[in-house]
Specification:
One of its GO terms (cellular component) is outer membrane. This is Bacterial surface antigen (D15) domain-containing protein. The chain has one domain: Porin (Beta Barrel), CATH 2.40.160. Helix content is 8%, strand content 50%. It has three helices and 17 strands. A hairpin with a 2-residue loop joins strand 16 and strand 17.
C-alpha cells in the first residue's frame, strides 16, 4: 500500500493525464491542454467556469520535517511570482522555521523587475539562531572518512568525530539595485551586511589542545572567534535574456558582483570578493518547449584581505540556498569556490504538462591556501532526480521535490519554482 500522500497525488495526476491522452483524437484536440493544479481542482469539483487569467501566483504551505542538526522542524513557506506593469516576471520568497533545538530561521528573498524593466532589485535578508557543523576548509576536508548520512532541506549532521558542531546567530542584509543601460544589460550597486555573533565552537577545548578549524583560522587572521562582521558595498553588472525567471525555457543570465568591505564602514578586517554567475537554457525539442537543458556555473573568489571563517565562500550560501543538492549547507568552505551544475528538464505528462521531471549532476571545488589545496585538486560530485508539479501555468511556477546524492551524503529538497 502506498502511504505517502505526495506519491498518491502524483499517481492520481499521472493517471488522469494518461486517460486524457488515450481519448480518441486527443493529439492536437481540446483534451490536450496545459493544466495546472487549479485546473485539476476545478475538474474534480465540477466547476465549469474558467478562472480569470492571472499574471501572478502565490504558493503557501506548512513545513514539517526533521534533521540531526535541527531536530523536529515546523514552519511555513510563502513564494510568489508576479508582474509589475509592463515588466518581466518578479519573485519573492519568505520562509519561517522553528526547531525542537530552539533554532529560529527567517528568510526573505526578492528579485524584482520594475518601471518597465528599467530597474532590477535583488535581495537576500536572513535572521538565524542557528547550528551548523563545519569540517575544515577545502573540498578534501575533513581528512578521514565520513559515514553515509541523510538530511532534509539541505540540513543535517554526520554523527562522526570528524565533524565540528557550531552554534551562532546570523544577521544578513544584502540588497542590490541595478538600472538598465541597454537591452538585457543592468548596472548598479548594493549594500551588504553580515554579522555573526554568539558563536559557540562546541568541540573547542583549549586545555586539552583540541583546536577546531574555526578557532585556528580566526586566531591566525585576527578575528574574535565569538563574533565578527562584514559591512560593505558592491558594484553589480547583470545580463538577462531569459524568457521567464521562474522557469526559463530559453535565454541566459549572467551576474558579476564585486564587493568591497572596508574597516571604515564597520568591517572587522578589510576584504574584497567577486561573485560571478552564469546560467544558460536551451530548448531541445520542437514538440515540447518544457524539454530544456540548463547549465549553471558559479565562481566565488576572495580577491583581497581576509574574510571571517563563516563569511568565506561555502556550498549552499547562494541567494536561494540551492547549490549542492546532495550535500548539507556549509558542507564545503574555503577562500575560493567554483561550482557547476547541469539539469535536464522534461515533461512526464506530455498531454497536460502537469507533471515534469528533472535529472541533474553537479560538482564543487574549494581551496584551502593554508594547506596548499588548490581549486580542482579535489572535486566533489552530486547527482539526483526530481518531480515537478505545475502549480500555475501563467507564471510556470512548479512545486519541486528532488532527491540528491553526494559523497557519503544524500537529501530531499522541497520548494517552488526551479532550482536555477
Amino acid at each position: 500500500m502506498i502511504r505517502n500522500p505526495v506519491v498518491v497525488f502524483i499517481f492520481i495526476l499521472l493517471s488522469l493525464d494518461l486517460t486524457a491522452q488515450q481519448t480518441p483524437g486527443s493529439p492536437g484536440n481540446d483534451s490536450c491542454q496545459t493544466k495546472d493544479m487549479t485546473d485539476w481542482f476545478r475538474q474534480w469539483t465540477n466547476k465549469k467556469k474558467p478562472p480569470k487569467e492571472k499574471t501572478s501566483a502565490i504558493f503557501a504551505a506548512p513545513l514539517i520535517g526533521s534533521s540531526p542538526s535541527t531536530g523536529f522542524l515546523v514552519g511555513a513557506t510563502l513564494q510568489t511570482a508576479f508582474k509589475l506593469p509592463n515588466s518581466n516576471l518578479s519573485a519573492f520568497q519568505a520562509n519561517l522555521q522553528y526547531t525542537s533545538k530552539n533554532q529560529f530561521l527567517v528568510f526573505l528573498r526578492n528579485t524584482i523587475y520594475a518601471k518597465k524593466n528599467t530597474i532590477l532589485l535583488s535581495g537576500d535578508w536572513r535572521f538565524f539562531l542557528y547550528a551548523e557543523p563545519t569540517y575544515g576548509l577545502g573540498t578534501n576536508a575533513p581528512k578521514g572518512t565520513l559515514p553515509y548520512y541523510f538530511h532534509f532541506m539541505g540540513e543535517g549532521e554526520a554523527t562522526d568525530s570528524l565533524s565540528q558542531p557550531m552554534e551562532f546567530n546570523y544577521y544578513k542584509i544584502h540588497q542590490v539595485a541595478s538600472f538598465r543601460v541597454a537591452d538585457g544589460w543592468f548596472i548598479g550597486a548594493g549594500v551588504h551586511f553580515d554579522l555573526f555573533n554568539n558563536i559557540k565552537d562546541l568541540k573547542l577545548d583549549t586545555p586539552t589542545a583540541y583546536i577546531t578549524s574555526h578557532y585556528a583560522y580566526s586566531s591566525k587572521y585576527g578575528f574574535n572567534p565569538e563574533k565578527y562582521k562584514q559591512i560593505g558595498v558592491s558594484l553589480n553588472i547583470v545580463y538577462d535574456t531569459r524568457d521567464n525567471m521562474v522557469n526559463a525555457y530559453k535565454g541566459m543570465y549572467a551576474n558579476l558582483n564585486y564587493r568591497f568591505n572596508p574597516t571604515w564602514l564597520g568591517s572587522d578586517e578589510y576584504s574584497s570578493a567577486i561573485w560571478s554567475e552564469f546560467r544558460y537554457f536551451k530548448g531541445v525539442s520542437r514538440k515540447y518547449e518544457s524539454m530544456v537543458l540548463a547549465f549553471w556555473l558559479i565562481g566565488n573568489f576572495s580577491v583581497g584581505g581576509d574574510q571571517p571563517y563563516l563569511g568565506l565562500p561555502a556550498l549552499g550560501y547562494d541567494q536561494r540556498s540551492k547549490t549542492g543538492r546532495g550535500y548539507t549547507i556549509g558542507r564545503f568552505r574555503g577562500e575560493n569556490m567554483v561550482y557547476g551544475e547541469t539539469e535536464f528538464r522534461f515533461p512526464i505528462s506530455k498531454c497536460t504538462g502537469t507533471l515534469g521531471g528533472v535529472l541533474f549532476v553537479n560538482a564543487v571545488t574549494i581551496d584551502n591556501k593554508d594547506a596548499y589545496v588548490h581549486l580542482f585538486d579535489y572535486v566533489k560530485p552530486g547527482f539526483g532526480a526530481g518531480i515537478r508539479i505545475l502549480f500555475n501555468k501563467q507564471t510556470r511556477m512548479n512545486i519541486q521535490v528532488d532527491y540528491g546524492r553526494g559523497d557519503h551524503s544524500s537529501g530531499i529538497y522541497f520548494g517552488a519554482s526551479e532550482v536555477f
